[in-house]
């Protein structure tokens, strides 16, 4: 059910487009297990297999799980993660976001 340009990327590196021109490209390094987990999470949220997530899809997932999702935070999330401003988050954008979170978490541990 994998889709998108990066569907066949290796576990050791995953090239993805940057967000909002902050970088021309980023190499996202995850273990095989991490790639599998992230793809499963993405597929879980993309219930119909479109290959992308929309705000409505994320809100529906939140409602179904009983979680409250603040629309301001969701708008901010899309502003940061949606690199091509198409109102959809593809798997590449999702993985790049996960990579940035991983880097931030690692930097906090060093402090």
Can you walk through the features of this model?
This protein is mainly alpha-helical. Helices cover 50% and strands 9% of the residues. It has helices spanning 32-45, 55-65, 71-81, 91-110; strands spanning 14-16, 26-28, 52-53, 89-90. The strands form two sheets. Strands 1-2 form a two-stranded antiparallel ribbon. Helix 1 crosses helix 4. The protein is globular. The termini are far apart.
Name the descriptors:
111 residues, mainly alpha, Recoverin, domain 1, two-stranded antiparallel ribbon, 4 helices, globular, disordered N terminus
Secondary-structure topology with pairs:
Elements: E1 14-16, E2 26-28, H1 32-45, E3 52-53, H2 55-65, H3 71-81, E4 89-90, H4 91-110
Helix pairs in contact: 1-4
Name of the CATH architecture of the domain at 41-110: Orthogonal Bundle
For the largest beta sheet, what order do the strands appear in spatially?
Answer: 1-2
Distance separating the two termini: 40 Å
Percent of residues in β-strands: 5-15%
Oligomer description: single chain
Count of distinct strands: 4
How many individual helices? 4
Q: Classify the fold: give the CATH topology of the domain at 41-110.
A: Recoverin, domain 1
CATH classification class of the domain at 41-110: Mainly Alpha
Helix content: 40-55%
Main sheet characteristics: 2 strands, antiparallel
> Regions with pLDDT < 50 over 5+ consecutive residues?
1-28
Give me the secondary-structure category.
mainly alpha
Shape: globular
Q: What's the CATH H-level superfamily name of the domain at 41-110?
A: EF-hand
